[in-house]
Amino acid sequence: MKKNLFKTLCFAAIALFTAFSLNSCKTTEPEPDPEVLLDGFYVSGDATAFSAVTIAGQLKSTTVENDNNSARVGLNEIYIALEANKTFTLTEVSGATKMVYGPGAGFASVVQVAGDDEMGATIQKGKYASGGTFTVPTSGLYHVIIDKQTTTVVILPVASWAIIGGATPLGWSDNVMDAKGAFSKDSMVFEIKDLTLLAGDFKFRHSGAWKQTIVATPLIKVNTNFGGTSMTTLVPGGANIPLVKADNGKYTVTARWTKDKGMKITMMKTGIVVVAEYPANLYMIGSSIGGWDWTGAYIIKMNPVHSHPNAFWAIAYIDAPATDPGFKFSPVKDWAGDFGVTGTATNGVYAKGGTNLTVATAGYYMVYVDLKAEKISVTVPTVYGIGDAFGGYTKDVLANKFVVDNTAKTITSPATTAAGNLRMYATCPLSQLDTPIADWWQMEFNVIAGKIEYRGAGGDQAAVPVTVGKKAVLNFKTGVASIQ
């Protein structure tokens, strides 16, 4: 009995000592250091993922789109998910001082009509001022921009993201990346799958727009697009991103916003594509344009349709000689790979074949070759003016249509209706049957140094400013042109 009691007392002593030792070793955990907030503007509030001002909610500096993407002190932006009918504020941190802002003078919802590369949407814009709170009517991703110098804030809904450019199926029209999943203040995803991308260039933009006016005076615009030298160097308003031939394929393209990392865009190759090979050049030859000798100066080098490697076009003066009439095509200045048509035309469109093409009446014709569809059209030329000098960028406006004079061998524009840069383009029905269609700028040309100069597969041509009342007079047979 004594022995058991002694054991019990020993165990109790050991337990006491152990408890005392463990408690004696405990230390107080240090409080985490407070988050360091840099000077600048922040978004926070119940509408956001940030209940308090935090570094993840800071607006970042951006550039002035209309001034060669120059820096402007106090011009900042953020992409952020906002929940409808809940409030948020802007906080300006300056050292130890915090100023909280809400709507100020003139702040209101504005129905903005799409135009001048800006979105069509209901946006919010105006002054910010001390006090009050902001709200948005619809939950979603938003693009918030502040210009401190004019105390202006603009809140843009991000309806969608898109990949756009010559490397994409729709060229410089939006390949839309739709929103995926339910709204979340923590993460928003926009995505397109199985998108075929071929050698060319591309960019990203949101809401069908390239830019947005923030302040009218002085004029301040910001970019609503991203570009760069590669996918790892995306910046607002960056350069077109190149895609080389080796990277042709099917892709999943994802624009992902998260509360911690902001806006990120990625591309993942998911498959390969077999690409038809088309010639780099295409030539016209034949007695109807001057002769059948490949060394002749009358040979017509056709113009490539921008972003359509399968298509070529030319406006040519074609004769109807009594003997040996016609013309054909070849990818080289030789009888190698040459072709013509087969059968009869339907609305000016032939199937590709081996027979010479002929016309019944001499005059100007639009000749369009689609090697993918294996079709050739020979139609009356259709040329339009477009852009500032012709009242805007609406395509195929009848009042802007050029007049064809086969006697004088000229094609003449209507008088310009405003001072601005002269721009013009050709089109034809066959070009509008391709997928995607040939857009106006893909068959553009201009009057430069007294000659007709074609854009071809290149970038924007040099600006040609004109005053009101000027006409472009074009001779496609000689290549000579003038502005009168």
Description:
The protein is mainly beta and 484 residues long. It has three domains: 40-157, Immunoglobulin-like, CATH 2.60.40; 161-208 and 225-271, no CATH class; 276-484, Immunoglobulin-like. Helices cover 5% and strands 44% of the residues. The strands form eight sheets. Strands 1, 2, 3, 4, 5, 6, 7, 8 and 9 form a nine-stranded antiparallel sheet that branches. Strands 10, 11, 12, 13, 16, 17, 18, 19 and 20 form a nine-stranded antiparallel sheet that branches. Strands 23-24-28-29-27-26 form a six-stranded antiparallel sheet, with no helix packed on it. A hairpin with a 7-residue loop joins strand 16 (225-227) and strand 17 (235-236). The longest helix has 24 residues, at 2-25. The model is unreliable at 1-25 (pLDDT under 50).
Concise account of the structure shown:
The chain is 5% helix and 44% strand. The protein has 484 residues and is mainly beta.
Average of per-residue pLDDT values? 93
Low-pLDDT runs of 5+ residues are 1-25
Distance between the termini: 127 Å
Computed over alpha carbons, the radius of gyration is 32 Å
The backbone outline, from C-alpha atoms, is: elongated
CATH topology of the largest domain, by name, is Immunoglobulin-like
The CATH architecture of the largest domain would be Sandwich
